[in-house]
Amino acid sequence: MTVFGAVGTRSAVALFRSEIEGVGDGWVGVDRALSRLSRQLSEHAESAPYPHFAVALRDVAASLELDLRRVAARLADFGRNSEINGADTVSEGRSSWDRLRVSQEDLRALLRQFGQLIIRWDDEEPTDAALAREVRDHLLRHRAALGDLLARADPHALN
Fold first, then answer.
1. How far is 48 from 68, CA to CA, in rounded Å?
2. 5 beta partners
3. Is pTM, for the whole model, over 0.85?
4. Strand, coil or helix: what is 2?
C-alpha cells in the first residue's frame, strides 16, 4: 500500500474494467485454447499410426481453424489481436491412444469454458452468446469424432 492507495494491484485494476473488456477477455481465452488444440491435433496427426486416424485428426484441426478465424474476427471487433504465435505448449502422450485421450480432455475443458461463457453472456451479450453456441456445437461434433477414434485406438501399443 502506498500513500496513494492500492495502486497497480490486480484487484484494484479489475474493479475498473468495463463489461465489454470482460467479453473481450473471454474471447482471448477461447482463442488461445482453440489455437492450442488445433496445433495439438495437427501435430498428433503427423504421428498417427493409421492413415484414417491422420485424416480424421487433420479434418478436426481444419474445422477448428475455421472456428478460430471466426473467433479472431470477433476479437478484431474488440480491437484485439488473435494470439496465433504458438506460445502455449502442446500436450503429448506416449502412444496414439494417450495422445487422443489428452486431446479429448482438452476438448472437454474447452467445451466447459464455452458453456460458462454462454451462461455469462446470454442476457447481456446475445450476439457473443450466439457465436459461442455455434462454435460449441461444432466442438460437440468433434468430441464425438475424437471419441470414436479413441475407442478404436489400442491403449497398449507404443506408437
1. 23
2. 2
3. no
4. strand
